[in-house]
Amino acid sequence: MKRREFLKMSASGCLALAATGLRAAPARHPNIVLIYADDVGYGDVGCYGATRIRTPNVDRLAAEGRRFVNAHAPAATCTPSRYALLTGEYAWRKKGTNILPGDARLVVEPGRTTLPSVLRRAGYATGVVGKWHLGLGAAELDWNGEIAPGPREVGFDEHFIIPATGDRVPCVFVENGRVAGLDPRDPIQVSYKTPVGTDPTGRDHPERLKMRTTAGHDQTIVNGISRIGYMSGGNAARWVDEEIADTLVRKGASFIERHQKQPFFLYFATHDIHVPRVPHPRFAGRSGMGPRGDAILQFDWAVGEILKTLDRLKLTGNTLVVLTSDNGPVLDDGYADQAVEKAGAHKPAGPLRGGKYSAFDAGTRVPFVVRWPGQVKRGTSNALMCQIDLVASVAALTGTPLAAADAPDSLDMLAPLQGATDGGREHLVEQGASLSLIAGPWKYIEPSSGPAIERGTNIELGHSPDPQLYNLDEDIGETRNLAAQHPERVAQMADRLKTIRAGTRTR
Fold first, then answer.
1. Which residue from 40, 33, 1, 29 is spatially nearest to 274, judged by alpha carbons?
2. How far apart are alpha carbons 118 and 192 in whole angstroms?
3. C-alpha 433, offset from chain centre
């Protein structure tokens, strides 16, 4: 290319960026921090309409960045969302990616292209801190030795993780392939079939509980809270629930500090606001909404601490921060923590119908905020977006090529993420109690069997023997099923969903 042609192309590119109000991208790739909340609903934070509770740090991020109001988790539950987020593949394509027990094997194939592996190829230091819930190991796992394969085998240089969820054993952290703080003289045993050791269970000793249960969660007691599954040993390594958020923040900040001189990717996956909700005493009772509300305050604090770390190290200007949640909200999820009784006027799902586990939009439509000063246009976007697209989008951002088989359902959404266009996805498959398809303003939910309402959580699941069709632009609450009025559209969308399901990719 001649110098004159190069200068002409460069000038055209600068003019295009100027037209969108964005600066030319910096020479160094931006740091990327992905803050992944757990069970935070569309209406749980101030910038999405919450009024009973204050979330100043999340709101600050939204004010300084771009807030997406039609962005989705890939699924209405945690494991499939996390699988799709990291692999760029719809989880319903892979058997065994539903909610995993705490002793499950790793469900992401070691060596496959993932969000962290794309960034590692681009020269990033990659780390995950927080909830994992994608399984560990390839066979029956010995928690007392090297734990592999795990995050390292799917693209992360470092990890400090909760193996599954806070309500599942083992209640320990795993750091870079080993249980953190484990005393070898007190080995860990874990079983999801039969009791192990002599630790008391919630079922047999409810008098020892500091939080009662409403459904399940009645097996081994750890820190006064009974869990799913049986555990013995590892007493020195067991976490204290009230200290989890502080521990994760400290580890996340440490990763940023240690890698500040090179591009880094931090996947910061909070435990909040998943059950059991046992926030630190400095948050307990502050929300007036019980432990769930207090956990929202704690989550917002954690967001603020990560942002403060970026500010202190003068990294804010060249750091892309993405904040979102793995699925929609749930109130009573197995523990008697007064989430239902004290919610009052607070609407965790905002104007949406359903919640966690549901095929209705509250199952997957979640907060989604992006900030990169000077590179992401401030404001609000109605573009149809999904977390599954982060793999292809960061590949485009860093100039890292994807092979044809990589990230089969991940689309390059860098332009709408930055605000250079208002367009988003043409269609999206949502995984809830059943599969649904969004295309433009229309949402089709396929017929399915099952209860209309999940008894334990009191959430509308969206099951119906008949097809459902909603116009989300006119009826965001999915209150009017228009399937009978638009049979041709129903047939068209049903065929399209069938074709997508039968294929192996949409990218």
1. 40
2. 35
3. 18
Tokens for 77? 């539950």
Instruction: From first to last of the 507 residues of the chain, give the pLDDT tens digit.
Output: 433 443 333 333 443 444 445 655 566 899 999 999 999 999 999 999 999 999 999 999 999 999 999 999 999 999 999 999 999 999 999 999 999 999 999 999 999 999 999 999 999 999 999 999 999 999 989 999 999 999 999 999 999 999 999 999 999 999 999 999 999 999 999 999 999 999 999 999 999 999 999 999 999 999 999 999 999 999 999 999 999 999 999 999 999 999 999 999 999 999 999 999 999 999 999 999 999 999 999 999 999 999 999 999 999 999 999 999 999 999 999 999 999 999 999 999 999 999 999 999 999 999 999 999 999 999 999 999 999 999 999 999 999 999 999 999 999 999 999 999 989 999 999 999 999 999 999 999 999 999 999 999 999 999 999 999 999 999 999 999 999 999 999 999 999 999 999 999 999
Task: Report which of 396, 398, 367, 360 is spatially closest to residue 381, judged by C-alpha positions.
Answer: 367
Which residue in this structure is represented by tokens 């005393």? 183
- Please, are residues 67 and 369 in contact by the beta-carbon 8 Å criterion? yes
Residue in this structure with the two tokens 């009191």, named with its chain if needed: 458
Cβ-contact 112, 81 below 8 angstroms: no
DSSP 3-state of 57: helix
Only one residue has tokens 């160094």, namely: 28
454 vs 359: CA distance, rounded Å: 12
